[in-house]
Write a structure and sequence with these properties.
Two copies of one chain form a homodimer. The first copy, chain A, is of the alpha/beta class. Chain A is 34% helix and 19% strand. In chain A, a hairpin with a 2-residue loop joins strand 12 and strand 13. At the A-B interface, helix 1, helix 10 and strand 12 of A face helix 1, helix 10 and strand 12 of B.
């Protein structure tokens, strides 16, 4: 097959709120080859991501992503790796390119899986997929009481694990955070897996983080996620020496393999959290999963959007039996739900399974997406470089 | 002062060639406040960089850069740092944002310097600026003979140092590279400072790099630059253990302080090369210079475009007396030359000095830029988010 077309769709809720909810818009990618269509999703700001696909060349190492994708042969997994390397070489100085590549790479695995009638995880080399324990990924409530109610509701929906993050956490007093942590534990019950996400608000302030450790140990948090920005390796390392039973988790900001490796090598984390929609797609995420596995660091997906993104993000570690925790967006906006016809549901024991149908196993729900489509247009010197394609062309 | 407006100008040569020459287009930024204008330049793909400034918000940590800049107070250096932190927090998940911020940050220093009648380096805390030894930054010729001629011409232009990079280097046989290195040394003369730049083509292949070390030692190269991509810290480290008198140099790909720190902490480099047009501007570059200086790593600017970018890139280490080497674009396209009225020239001894006039000390040559202006337009849901502003509005 040859890659015939790559189409980007900018989708959005009618109103985007100033909250840490990444499901409010979406950057959907369709790749067509050999009469088939594959789908992916960049976990990225749609407009700059599209611009990185279509922009004019600046120089030999600052080319638009399309220069390395359109017309390329796509017959096996090695082709997908080759295309990714082309993008990284030719778009070396185009920062946004790795976010753009991420959705394309997913779509290539989806397409190749459909062509070869195999789920993506098998093409990645895993003989089978193991069930994952999904945690309800939720925002902290504005008050401890509302966090308690959210934790109760997660439990009642069948989740055995829940993560709370963002909202007011880390921004106020230590005592306010302690009350939030306790409310989350209380709502979740003594046997639930409790995860806490700080959303990088301490940047690299080890003292601010350390002040919360006693309470996190007391409520038996399994991990403390993103106390700092992804690059603050030394701050992570220092905190890890004091965090004891509470393992550090981070990595969602990684936009290439090297960054994931640095966190594993230098940051003292127990869990590396990779968003396949940012790191360069499933291909790079799998490389990070292999690297983490060999070094005793658990791999976890980062997913806060649709079930297309969820399926894509589960593939890279589908075959790792003991890396069992998986992020599961529990408060998605209707856009994220409407994006696919089928969904990945919890079974009676609270587990999820990666789809066994070809590719990513998710059907994009074009019929429902019309109201979410954002009309965008990019023109340069009277030429239209991008205009929102028609979704009907499915 | 309050920041009243931020305007982006996409400038380009009529034809952009598929070569490693970053001076073929430019992303110029003008910031206006208090009746003054400051100028900066993002070393970045213009269209995605502009899109990152104007795009709609995706969520609370994925906002357009303009949300953190327009209307902000600008009265002292602390305001510039504060604005940068706002951008990093609010645009955390917008990858291109740091390239967008870079040019804005330069313009803010230019503006503040004009307001306070001080050159930017003094506002950064340096009591004086020391002369720098500029190296002619050139591409390797397609043949060893043409590289020899280029080295001769650099010498005849008054340069005592020259760097050759990109072109065919590293892509063919070891012998072909050896001939290139020898031709460069021969053309430059025995007393010239010779620098070699591989342009990341070996990605993380330590063996490929090590095969060239004996020849680099023989021609007394001062540094071997970017044998690998910025993130390949372990590959750098391994190579540094064998490189002896040839120090490793790298860092131009760093788009935040953490990445520069990682190279200094983990990669065994002798020179850290920072592009103020990528790392987040002069503010972050100065932080990297301080960090490098404290650890015995030499700071060098990375500059391949205009003299506006050159002045901006010299400010962060202007006051470091012993970090003497500076990159100087020696084969700029006419756009890069025409971008400013004044230029930073070599003195009779082959040294350059950072301008002593307020701000960055460079006057943008609006009258000459008309032919280079690229008309660009970004529309979303029938609203124009960006349209090339008029340069006459100076």
């Amino acid at each position: 097959m040859k890659i015939e077309s790559v189409d980007f769709f900018y989708l959005s809720m009618p109103e985007v709120l100033d909250i840490g909810d990444g499901s409010q818009d979406a950057c959907l990618v369709r790749v067509q080859a050999g009469g088939l269509a594959g789908w992916g999703e960049c976990e990225a700001a749609p407009l700059p991501t599209i611009a990185a696909f279509v922009c004019p060349m600046s120089h030999s190492a600052c080319k638009p992503v399309q220069a390395s994708v359109l017309g390329q042969a796509l017959n096996d997994a090695a082709d997908i790796e080759r295309i990714g390397n082309l993008v990284r070489d030719r778009s070396l100085d185009l920062l946004q390119a790795e976010h753009t590549l991420s959705g394309i790479d997913m779509a290539l695995w989806d397409l190749l899986g459909k062509r070869l009638s195999e789920p993506a995880y098998r093409l990645l080399g895993y003989p089978r997929a193991y069930p994952k324990l999904p945690y309800a990924s939720m925002l902290f409530g504005e008050t401890a009481e509302s966090t308690y109610q959210k934790a109760r509701s997660a439990r009642s929906l069948g989740f055995r694990a829940a993560k709370f993050g963002w909202g007011p956490i880390g921004l106020g007093t230590v005592q306010a955070d302690v009350e939030q942590f306790q409310a989350a534990r209380e709502g979740l019950g003594a046997d639930g897996t409790l995860l806490v996400d700080i959303g990088t608000v301490w940047r690299d302030d080890v003292v601010a983080a350390a002040l919360r450790l006693p309470s996190l140990k007391e409520v038996r948090a399994t991990w403390l996620e993103e106390p700092f920005v992804s690059g603050a390796l030394e701050a992570y390392k220092q905190l890890s020496l004091q965090s004891g039973s509470v393992k550090l988790a981070g990595g969602e900001g990684c936009h290439n393999f090297h960054m994931a490796r640095h966190m594993i090598d230098y940051a003292g984390i127990g869990f590396v959290q990779i968003d396949a929609g940012r790191i360069g797609g499933i291909t790079v995420a799998k490389k990070a999963a292999d690297y983490a596995h060999a070094r005793g660091v658990s791999y976890v997906n980062h997913t806060f959007t649709s079930h297309l993104a969820l399926s894509a993000s589960l593939q890279p570690f589908a075959g790792l039996e003991h890396d069992i925790i998986a992020e599961y967006p529990a408060e998605p906006k209707s856009l994220a739900t409407d994006l696919t016809v089928n969904h990945i549901h919890l079974d009676g024991d609270g587990y999820i399974r990666v789809p066994e149908s070809p590719g990513l196993g998710m059907e994009v729900n074009a019929a429902k997406l019309g109201p979410y489509v954002v009309d965008a247009e990019i023109r340069v010197n009277n030429q239209t470089l991008y205009r929102t394609p028609r979704l009907e062309g499915l």
